[in-house]
Amino acid sequence: MKSPTIKPLHYTCVLVAVALAALLPWLAPNQFYIHLATVGCINLMLVLGLAIIARAGQLSMGHGGFALVGGYVSALLSMKGWPPLLTLFIAGLVAAVIAAALGWIILRLRGVYFVLVAFAFSQIAVLLALDMSSITGGANGLVGVPPISIFGHVLRAKPQFYPFALGCALTTLLLTWLLYRSPLGTMMAATAENQRLTESSGIDTHRVQVIAFTIGSGIAGFAGALSTHYLRFISPDSYTFWESVSYLTMLVVGGRDGVLGPVVGVLVLTPLPELLRSTEGLQHIIYGTVLVLCLMFVPNGLASIVQMWRARQRVTTTSATLVAGEVP
User: Fold this and answer.
1) What percentage of the chain's residues is helix, strand, coil (to nearest 5)?
2) Is this structure's pTM higher than 0.90?
């Protein structure tokens, strides 16, 4: 009897949060907060892509490599005159195709081998960007990437770009939520829970993991391209191994079970690098400290705190009801 009263409250909270996010350009005291929110939207897409891969029981340490590929693909095509709005999707498609081909081979490996090969891919992507200087600009990168234009309206300033980034992040969030509730999402969760048992029920877990890896990496390519057009710059240092670690930390800190976890992780950890930019050496220490504390005290992520509080409330209510029933 509780769910019909709780669900409308959830939807109301989501609508209020979306409304506040949409009104940010008018509520923020200065453009720095709009910049933070835009970076948060891009990070949310990247973490959601990583969450989809983790939903199928795999851990990708090459997520930054796919974002780098997407960024370069979109930058190079748009600098040759292609519409940036089109190159965003081409970048996501290219990253997804590479992930499908790579995943079809390496996802047959069990244990830590997938993690190692994914990590190697991200390093190879960085090295190729450095070595192919005639195309990628080498260590200097590509400067002056064209901004996104929608029906002649150029998204050049931060307040103009933020609504587009927010729309992309919300669309990714909605599609991920729908994916988790689809039969494919159920098969992904079953694969992560017990791969051998899932295979015994006739499900091709290898195909499920390849699909999850393709979708998650495609989202990373799209988000990398979006970031490139926002900053109008990309270099091999834009997405290194440490960016992949940051996205993984956001996922672990927020929680991996649903779409709320990535949102919480991004909200908590996105402002830290920007606020601590003057003390760059402390960023990784703080990230590591937060990760260790969460693994020790909240292993299922900060988003699980609400679930634990509700479970305790239900136990307390049930106990009180039983005690009241035993009292004459």
Assistant:
1) 80, 0, 20
2) no
